[in-house]
Amino acid sequence: xxxxxxxxxxxxxxxxxxxxxxxxxxxxxxxxxxxxxxxxxxxxxxxxxxxxxxxxxxxxxxxxxxxxxxxxxxxxxxxxxxxxxxxxxxxxxxxxxxxxxxxxxxxxxxxxxxxxxxxxxxxxxxxxxxxxxxxxxxxxxxxxxxxxxxxxxxxxxxxxxxxxxxxxxxxxxxxxxxxxxxxxxxxxxxxxxxxxxxxxxxxxxxxxxxxxxxxxxxxxxxxxxxxxxxxxxxxxxxxxxxxxxxxxxxxxxxxxxxxxxxxxxxxxxxxxxxxxxxxxxxxxxxxxxxxxxxxxxxxxxxxxxxxxx
Length: 309
Prior knowledge:
It is a single chain. The chain is mostly helical and 309 residues long. It contains ten helices and three strands; from the N terminus they run αααααααββααβα. The N terminus is likely disordered.
């Protein structure tokens, strides 16, 4: 019980720190968003507008992540026995969908701008200045967020968004330099297309991890067979069946299993010792703080299966 309490307290402390980081990053993103919208209006740059759109998506995503992090910190109730931690996963789902919509929208507009024979006019000098401002601000936001809990899907989504913004600023800088050096205004649309292509795979990866949690699949880094072997290595254990492992939210795995033991273990009253060993094994080797074992005497599973036919 003590290990589980310490694990929960550490998780709560990390998430409190994450909320502070999200607030700081949100302030940075909003400032750059305003600067890029103004810059796009003055220069006619689609790359700046695309990055501003990405920034707007990030601002919404960070607000959702911040709200979700606060809700997730609420204690469990009789109605919500696991608490509200899965709200963070739903926030990551919202972020993933926003990123997908943004990538498609920017890509379509970039292609549309490349089609006409007459290129759009772009004022590259102020575009370069605004893009450099965005790069510096994104670097600061990334440094702020990287100190947080990167096992959290919520924080990972926020970090991925800021990384995308940073790469978008690099693309806008490159486009502005090309336009200044060659006069090729199409570089702006190409940079926008590159930004869309940078956003899309990150959205797919985030949505994949969200679906893994929502479908209650085993965590990607967890080897279920290895856990089974560890449990079966206990001298009192005969077999293990009905093994289930899933996550409530990122960083909070849950494990259940039926463990078959020799009848003498029950007779000698050693069930408590077996449970302590198995729980310690899961917490120590696999960082699973919440594990539940149903102890069964040898032959019980066969009788149970026969009764349910």
